[in-house]
Every structure is written in C-alpha cells, then in structure tokens.
Amino acid sequence: MKNFQLQAKILAQTKIKNSYWRCTLRAAPIARLARPGQFVNIKISAGLTPLLRRPFSIHGISGDKLTLLYEVVGQGTQILAQKKAGESLDIIGPLGNGFELKSARPALIVAGGMGAAPLLFLATKVKTLVLVGAKTKEQLLCVQEFKKSGCRVKISTDDGSAGFKGRVSELLKHNLAGYNTIYACGPKPMLKAVAEVAKKYKLPAQLSLEEHMACGIGACLGCVVKTKDGLRRVCKEGPVFLAEDLIW
User: pLDDT tens across 110-146, in order?
Assistant: First the structure.
C-alpha cells in the first residue's frame, strides 16, 4: 500500500486527562488513504534525541485531519506533548495492515487501556457495542467519544470503581450473544484472554498488537511475533492479526 512522508501541521494539542493527550494534524494524503488499525511513524524532533521515530495509531480521521491519542510515558512522548499548534511534525503513513471490516457479520469491539487509540476510528465505521476496560475509573479512555460515534458502550474496571468489576475479557464473555466477530486492542495479557474467549466460542477475532517498534517499516525485525506461519513483523504484516494465527 502506498504511503507518504510529509510535514504535518499541528492543528490542536489537548491534554484530555492525567498523562493522556490528543493531537490533531493536517495530513491530507495520509487521511485520504488511512484505514482503521493503521499507524503513522513520527520524527519527534529535528535533532538526534530521540533518534528513532515513534509509532502512533491513527485515532481518527476527519477530512484532511488526522488525530492521535497518546500517553506521555517516555522521552519521545514528553517532547511531543510540548509541541504547540502551528508547529509541524515529520510523519510517514499510513503504515501497517489494519482491520478487515466484515460488514455482513455483527461485530463487537474490545478496548483495553490505550487500546482505545486505534479503535475509535474503527468504531466510526462499525457502529456497534464497545467494551472499554481499564484498571481504574481514572484510566478509562474515550467512553464519551465511542458513544458520540454511534456505538453503545459498556465499561469495566479491575478495581470496580466504575461499571463491571473485573477484566474487560470477563465482561466480553457476558456480551457475546448476537455477535459473530471480535475486534480488540490492548495489553498483551488482555489480548491473549480475548483470543482464548474467541477460540472457546468459535468466533473469529482480529487483534491489534501493541509492540515496541524501531524502524516501523519492516526493515529491522525488532517487532516480530510468533505466528503459525513463523515470525511476522507487527509493523508490516500487522499490527492487526487474526487471533487464531498467533502463538502466545
């Protein structure tokens, strides 16, 4: 698939809560081609620090605008959060293989923590039930945004501070009736649990993996995962894989 490298102007940079930020860029060529589940690779600064680009899931598309959702966790995201509207970022995208939309098959979406980042874009296309999970109420992301996209939402928290008390994979077991496929993104233990649920109930599931990437274009082999067909690169063959193909 074709991708572009361009200077994308920052249109808005908003702290949504705690250490979570939303950044909106003008990137018309990328926005035009992007599919849910794909990502962009961003050069955070003009200098050598940080040296490598950083991958960010495409959170949303509106016309020529592209939105990212990210958490400040390290040097790269700390620098990104300091960028202001009017500045530009060197970005490459759209990259990776996204979700395959199966409109004829009722699907549900499972978002764990920062796994909400690529799933909001998907939700605007699928408009279904979204299960949003987090450790605590304060860490829940995009609940209102999923609702505004036309989806129904159920939430879970590990500590019971909001919604269902328990892991979102447990909430999933109680909401399978009427759905024939699962889309999910989140921490690896959550995705493994979702894969086990999908296998038990014989449902196809597409999982977006969260792996550390270096080059982001498949050259360095730094983000490989085990599959039934051998090692596969998350940045190139993924980040979305069929649950049945993954070896945990």
Answer: 999 999 999 999 999 998 999 999 999 999 999 999 9
Quote the pTM value: 0.93
CA torsion sign, 121 to 138 to 168 to 147?
negative
Dihedral of alpha carbons 82, 62, 240, 219, sign: negative
Q: What is the pLDDT of residues 137-174, one digit of tens each?
A: 999 999 999 999 999 999 999 999 999 999 999 999 99
CA distance 96 to 149: 24
Rg over alpha carbons for the chain, rounded to the nearest Å, is: 17
Name the phi and psi angles at 156, rounded to 5.
Answer: -140, 150
Measured CA distances, 42 to 1, 59, 95, 158, 195 (Å): 18, 14, 11, 33, 30
Q: How many CB atoms lie within 10 A of CB 17?
A: 10
Other CB atoms closer than 10 Å to residue 86's CB: what's the count? Answer: 9
Parallel, antiparallel or unpaired: strands 60-62 and 4-17: unpaired
Give start and end residues of each alpha helix (H) in the chain. Answer: 28-33, 75-81, 116-126, 143-148, 168-173, 188-200
